Amino acid sequence: MGGVGYGGKLVERERARVLRRGGWTYPAIARELGVAVSTVSRWCRDVEPPAGRRRAPHPWQADVGADERRASQDARALIGDLTDRDLLLYGIGLYHGEGAKSQGVRMANTSPVVLLAFVAWLRRFFDIDEQRLRARLHLHAGHDLDAATHFWSDLLDIPPAAFQAPHRPDPRPGQVGKHPAGCASVIYSSASLHRRVMALIEAVSSSIADPG
Description:
Blueprint: H1 10-21, H2 26-33, H3 37-43, H4 59-79, H5 84-98, E1 105-109, H6 112-125, E2 133-138, H7 145-156, E3 183-188, H8 191-209
Antiparallel strand pairs: 1-3, 2-3
């Protein structure tokens, strides 16, 4: 089978826009994402930063970022293209560890890559009704709800109208919620689909435990 794509630089672009709204400078965003400053400028040209901007990282942080980028490049080279079977098994393992074990099929995460992979898996292997696919945000008060909603909506291809009422807790005293896009939940209410997903998890777990 052919390789499975995950939207190219879509995740990095949307992350750059969120960071820019949070006050990061172009060079800081470029170092964080491992892209050129000119690329960040193109992605964020229509994004207005707040009055106060985040200070650029200390040089040692830049060194750590470079090491992380090298590790990421090595990992991508080792993994190569994913087949449909690879994605199926990845999704089963992901749901086993992170997904809801009751009340339909549901995954919550702050990672755009994780949720994008989960939705790709859900759409590829199950005949879902897009009208029943929902999302919900857990976003600390003080962060931009509209920006966060559009970030996840664009990324996951779930319309804003399908987002349920968000949970907006106040940060603890002296703290600010560190995720400007919040934590998103993808929800598909179907007892039948939930049983199918749990059966896949059981089948894989049984095969590993008793390969004979």
